[in-house]
Amino acid sequence: MTVSETGSSRVKRGLAEMLKGGVIMDVVTPEQARIAEDAGAVAVMALERVPADIRSQGGVARMSDPDLIDAIIAEVSIPVMAKARIGHFVEAQVLQALDVDYIDESEVLSPADYVNHIDKWAFNTPFVCGATNLGEALRRINEGAAMIRSKGEAGTGDVSEATKHIRKISSEINQLKSMTRDELYVAAKELQAPYELVLEVAETGKLPVVLFVAGGVATPADAAMMMQLGADGVFVGSGIFKSGNPEARAAAVVKATTFYDDPSVVAQVSRGLGEAMVGINVADLAAPHRLAERGW
Amino acid sequence: MTTNLRSGSLDAVASASAGPRVGVLALQGDFREHAHVLATLGAEVSLVRRPEELDAIDGLVIPGGESSVMDKLARTFGLQAPLKAAIAAGLPVYGTCAGLIMLADTVLDAIDGQESLGGLDVVVRRNAFGSQNQSFETDLDIPALGEVPVHAVFIRGPVVESVGAAATPLATLADGRVVAVEQGNLLGTSFHPEITGEHRFHEYFLAKVRTRV
User: Which one of A53, A188, A210, B10 is at 20 to 30 Å from B129 when CA atoms are compared?
Assistant: First the structure.
């Protein structure tokens, strides 16, 4: 008596487990997807414009053209992720129909709903969502997210927000670990997260799903730092294809992510990469242009 | 969520007992889950990312993950040749999913230039079920592990398309496709016992390691 089940939590979270220790790269063409796979990406994020261009060009940023997503899926054999707008459950339905491997409900695109996120339990395809703190991460998991990425500030090449968010999530987890049961009820209230998830984090000392870091990673050293701060892996967006030598930089970030605790390897792979993306200091961004503040 | 990955020892989970010394290839993937299961079963576990770390182990697990990435990193950091030599010399190795691909003599649907370590006389098709939407969990009857079925999770997993004379199938899906094989000291599964709390494959593997030690 054998029953097969797709789309279970274990299957959805399981793919994220297999991506650990790896680098997921933003790509906007099949050619970039090929470069990413050849450089050792564990997955690619298919999108129309990298965050740096969304930032500089402005306008409403939406789900990518299905033709583009199809072309990228056809080009590579590693998992392909794609972004839907926050709350845009029909974009997510379309991405599921296109057979992407993961859907990113992303603040990098323009939100479609300023109140509700997508009910992610309703989908067979797993979701990754952004978070700036533990409460936000647990709310997304409660809605069905099977993977979390800290948000950072996408399209800047400034890693400071990524640092802030992973440190915040880690420190909030550490606080829960030292609390008694009665304190956890209050913690759940303050985190605005379900008590059961708060209790699980307090008992296990980690999120119930894989945690990657995103938003501003531009160099091998940035990636290694995020790993040392406790990330399970990294997303690199504009940092690769807005740099002088994407092939070399992509391969270097992959190696630095594996050997994140070995400065001699990080030093060796950081040589001769050409120009890093120019970048924008997050401190110089006016509040309306801070993507991490989208989502709640 | 640990930063104490310095190779050579895994303090967080290493057992104090002198169990068999088992390495887990830690280039990419769910190596910590394997390390945890092995430590629970009494093995002395270390993470392997460098050639010299192969010297101190009596068995090796190649985890789930992305086989094309593991292959690239293994070659870049000088692990491929010593791994092949160790397998040829009889080192017990257990591969799950990407690890099975790494152990297969022939890999179909690999990326351009992808190489495997080889050792298992099988042809394996990478990502044989399709996209993540086709990933699934199911129960498998595996007589070699006893009467209770094995609950198996397949994540964009491979299948064994043909089994050569030297290898033996251990498990098949209802449609007959082979998803677990062994050959001497080598063991490979398309699925991931390390994420389901299923310990019998690791116990089966550790028996091979103990026999050789």
Answer: A210
